[in-house]
């Protein structure tokens, strides 16, 4: 495998200053411990922040840090106190973190922190560019760097780029609060593969992409118009054996004995997290308090060991939370504590690995009740350490981990009675049942461990990239473009079949707004005036609209997908005899669907009916379109009409009519020495199919097509046509192009 370049906000190793000296220590948090547990077994380099402020002037210190981290396969991105305040404390932890965890009332929308977030993402991009090798696999992690995949894509168009999102992705109704949602989503879509912990997060992400950017998806693949991006779920695993094996090690056993001795016969309930409001610590304490009040028989019999690891201490919501927890612990201990029993044992610090495992092993119950949690590795770690099978995990249904740990006692953390019941059930659970539940979870955790997780993600990433490369072979590259332009210039009899909506002009929310602008008109005028050219505009639109737009030009027109055709300086005619009697039977059904689908409307043409749903809520529109199609198939089975799906439209028209048949009126008339057919939607597939093999048939957009080539996006169509015009003017020999024009055309065509 090629070298793996990991990029995350925090490096797995943090640097701090103590008595003027630099010290290395392990970083806190699931990302650092999870990803940190495997990266050294790969040929890899990890780019990120070493967790310490370094002032601009401290160049010498920076060099030392670079050297120290090099030995750890890490490369630092230095952040100033200003960056940390506005990017890390600000946009990351005061905007994205609360919003994406459904704490939207905590989220602050400050344009200044957004600006610094963008700048710091650029800084990370520069840092990657400093160290990246051509074949590196780049794996970006988490919400701090959501703009980075696209930034990297712009600088490294062919690179294999993955992104993993470690925290929840909320529903669109929550995500839409973010004023910069579109930019954030576009930033992520620079990746080839975007991974999440759960299917729910994937669905929410896809729905936001559809709603905010208008990009559709099938089987988790997003079509951006320029690229395909895969999304999938990869529930992060742990280094299972490290936890299971350590539980039996001598130092851990010693620590367990010390802890057990301290608590005697009392049952230990363990509450262990970073001090974060998403973890639900106050509610958990309140539930414990209520248990002691409602069931006094537990007083003196159980202790809650509360370990809260300091985190993001300069963010005010975290400071307030710390105060609240201190108060609650004081209140509970003051109310129930006795000379020989402290109900809540509170530790506010980071625990080294051995102590952590000892606490997991000594606890009878682990009470893990976050209000929202991307995954929660500590729940998995607790289960892994229980090698003798004992111990009960109480787990919040709001943690990503709950999807895999179904044998835990699952609770809603907001339901105090349920939490109390769960604690009681856990304390009373027979060992046999504990073991049955734990063994089932252990089996799963052992199989899908961290190594498996990494392998799974990286395999899918290389797969996604391979598919992108395969599909891009169809793309009109600068070389293919040159060939086309040269053939055009060399041709004497040229037929140009040009679809209108989505090809000559972009889509608009209302069809009547998609009028041909000056640029489109100029290109069509120039092409149709060129001797030897036969230009035909092909559209599903009605005759009168097309006449109003193009009637004065010297070109042919196909209207209503081929119901009507008009030769240059000829009259409109119907190439086939058609009936419109069926309309009366179909119209009421379309009306019914229109009434039930806000934003939908019906368009009536001479020999076809169209149901438009571009302006509807996308999911509703898509669902209704599917249902309508089914209903239409029944209703039209005895009529000589077909149902056709276009771009956000369902069109019902006479069976014999299609764009390909209509185009044959021109194709078969002459021995053309150059044919170009461009279109963007399914109705154009008939056109492509009717073309002779040597014709340049081009599908606009990247979905599979019968066309020979794909053009990345609609914005590339006019430059391509302009290029033909210019080359023709300069003569078939192909004189040198003006450098400025050449550059812009090639750039606009470049994939990615
Ligand atoms: O780096 P910090 O600001 O100190 O925060 C620590 C980490 O917290 C978050 O962890 C998440 O990742 C875990 C592993 O995927 C997951 O189990 C947990 O539910 C998440 O909250 C954050 O996503 C990391 O970036 C932070 O480093
Ligand atoms: O004192 C501590 C507390 C936590 N951790 C590690 O920090 C990670 C916490 O990850 P989790 O997914 O549970 O939550 P996060 O803090 O990332 O939100 C786990 O791997 C723990 O083993 C640790 O090493 N020492």
TrEMBL record:
CDD domains: GT20_TPS (cd03788), HAD_TPP (cd01627)
Single GO biological process annotation from the record: trehalose biosynthetic process
Transmembrane segments: none
EC code: 2.4.1.15
Gene Ontology molecular function terms on file: alpha,alpha-trehalose-phosphate synthase (UDP-forming) activity
Enzyme class: transferase
Record field: catalytic activity: D-glucose 6-phosphate + UDP-alpha-D-glucose = alpha,alpha-trehalose 6-phosphate + UDP + H(+)
Region (Disordered): 729-752
Chain intervals with Basic and acidic residues compositional bias: 729-745
InterPro entries named in the record: Glyco_trans_20, HAD-like_sf, HAD-SF_hydro_IIB, HAD_sf, Trehalose_OtsA, Trehalose_PPase
The entry's keywords: Glycosyltransferase, Transferase
Family membership noted in the UniProt record: In the C-terminal section; belongs to the trehalose phosphatase family.
Designated name of the protein: Alpha,alpha-trehalose-phosphate synthase
Source organism (scientific name): Methanoculleus oceani
Lineage: Archaea, Methanobacteriati, Methanobacteriota, Stenosarchaea group, Methanomicrobia
């Amino acid at each position: 495998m090629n070298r793996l370049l990991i990029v995350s906000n925090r490096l797995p190793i943090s640097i701090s200053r103590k008595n003027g000296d630099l010290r290395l220590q392990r970083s806190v948090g699931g990302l650092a411990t999870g990803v940190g547990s495997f990266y050294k077994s790969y040929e890899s380099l990890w780019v990120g922040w070493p967790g310490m402020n370094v002032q601009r002037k401290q160049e010498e210190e920076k060099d030392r840090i670079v050297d120290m981290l090099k030995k750890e396969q890490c490369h630092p991105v230095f952040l100033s106190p200003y960056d940390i305040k506005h990017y890390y404390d600000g946009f990351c932890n005061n905007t994205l973190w609360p919003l994406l965890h459904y704490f939207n009332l905590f989220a602050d929308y400050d344009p200044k922190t957004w600006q610094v977030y963008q700048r710091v993402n650029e800084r990370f991009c520069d840092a990657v560019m400093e160290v990246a090798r051509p074949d590196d696999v780049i794996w970006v992690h988490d919400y701090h760097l959501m703009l980075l995949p696209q930034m990297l894509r712009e600088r490294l168009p062919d690179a294999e780029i993955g992104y993993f999102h470690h925290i929840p992705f909320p529903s669109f109704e929550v995500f839409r609060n973010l004023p910069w949602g579109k930019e954030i989503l576009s930033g992520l879509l620079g990746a080839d593969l975007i991974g999440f912990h759960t299917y729910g997060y994937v669905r929410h992400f896809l729905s936001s992409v559809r709603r905010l950017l208008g990009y559709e998806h099938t089987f988790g693949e997003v079509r951006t118009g320029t690229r395909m991006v895969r999304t999938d779920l990869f529930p992060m695993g742990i280094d299972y054996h490290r936890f299971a094996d350590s539980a039996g090690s001598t130092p851990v056993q010693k620590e367990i004995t010390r802890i057990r001795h301290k608590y005697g016969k009392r049952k230990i309930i363990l509450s262990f997290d970073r001090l974060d409001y998403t973890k639900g610590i106050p509610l958990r304490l309140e539930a414990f308090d209520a248990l002691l009040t409602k069931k006094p028989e537990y007083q003196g019999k159980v202790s809650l060991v509360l370990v809260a690891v300091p985190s993001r201490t300069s963010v005010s919501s975290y400071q307030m939370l710390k105060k609240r927890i201190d108060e609650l612990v004081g209140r509970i201990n003051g109310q129930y504590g006795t000379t020989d029993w402290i109900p809540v044992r509170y530790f506010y610090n980071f625990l080294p690995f051995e102590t952590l495992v000892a606490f997991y092993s000594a606890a009878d119950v682990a009470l893990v009740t976050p209000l929202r949690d991307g995954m929660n590795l500590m729940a998995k770690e607790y289960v892994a350490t229980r090698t003798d099978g004992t111990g009960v995990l109480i787990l919040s249904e709001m943690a990503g981990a709950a999807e895999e740990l179904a044998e835990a006692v699952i609770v809603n953390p907001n339901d105090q009675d349920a939490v109390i019941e769960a604690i009681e059930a856990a304390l009373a659970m027979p060992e046999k049942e504990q073991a049955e539940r734990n063994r089932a979870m252990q089996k799963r955790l052992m199989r899908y461990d961290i190594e498996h997780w990494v392998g799974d993600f990286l395999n899918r990433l290389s797969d996604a990239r391979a598919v992108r490369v395969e599909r891009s072979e169809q793309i009109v590259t600068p070389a293919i473009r040159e060939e086309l332009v040269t053939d055009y210039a060399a041709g004497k009899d040229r037929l140009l079949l040009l679809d209108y909506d989505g090809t000559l002009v972009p889509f608009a929310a209302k069809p009547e707004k998609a009028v041909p602008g000056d640029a489109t008109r100029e290109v069509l005028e120039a092409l149709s005036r060129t001797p030897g050219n036969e230009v035909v505009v092909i559209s599903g639109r009605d005759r009168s609209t097309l006449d109003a737009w193009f009637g004065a030009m010297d070109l042919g027109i196909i209207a209503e997908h081929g119901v009507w055709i008009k030769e240059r300086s000829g009259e409109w005619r119907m190439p086939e005899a058609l009936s419109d009697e069926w309309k009366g039977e179909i119209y009421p059904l379309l009306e019914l669907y229109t009434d039930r689908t806000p934003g939908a409307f019906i368009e009536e043409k001479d020999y076809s009916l169209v149901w438009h749903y571009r302006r509807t809520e996308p999911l509703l529109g898509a669902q209704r379109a599917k249902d309508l199609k089914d209903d239409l198939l029944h209703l039209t089975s005895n009529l000589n009409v077909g149902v056709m799906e276009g771009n956000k439209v369902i069109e019902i028209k006479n069976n014999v009519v299609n764009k390909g048949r209509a185009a044959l009126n021109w194709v078969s008339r002459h021995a053309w020495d150059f044919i170009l057919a461009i279109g963007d939607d399914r109705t154009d597939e008939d056109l492509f199919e009717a073309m002779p093999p040597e014709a340049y048939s081009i599908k606009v957009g990247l979905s599979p097509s019968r066309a020979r080539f794909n053009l990345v996006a609609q914005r590339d169509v006019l430059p391509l046509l302009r290029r033909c015009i210019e080359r023709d003017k300069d003569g078939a020999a192909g004189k040198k192009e003006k450098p400025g024009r050449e550059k812009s055309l090639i750039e606009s065509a470049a994939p990615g």
